[in-house]
Amino acid sequence: MVRKTPRKATRKTAGKAAGKAGLARNPLVLALAAVAAVFAIGFGVSLVTESGSKPAVQVAAPARPVQPAVSAPAPVPQPPPSPVTVKAPSPVEPVVPTPPPIVRPDPAMGAEEEEVAAPPPVAPSPAPLPTTLAMLPPPAPPAHPPVQPPAGNAALWRRNAVPVTVPAGKPVIAIVIDDMGLDRRRAARMAALPGPLTLSWLPYARDLPAQARAARANGHELMLHMPMEPSVKADPGPEALLVSLDKGEVLRRFRAALDSFDGYVGVNNHMGSRFTADRAALAPVLAELHRRGLLWLDSRTTPKSAGIGLAQELRMPFAGRDIFLDNTAQVAAIRAQLAKVEQVAKRQGYGIAIGHPYDATIEALASWVPDVQKRGFVLVPVSAVVRAHHAGG
Question: What is the pTM of this model?
Answer without folding.
Answer: 0.64
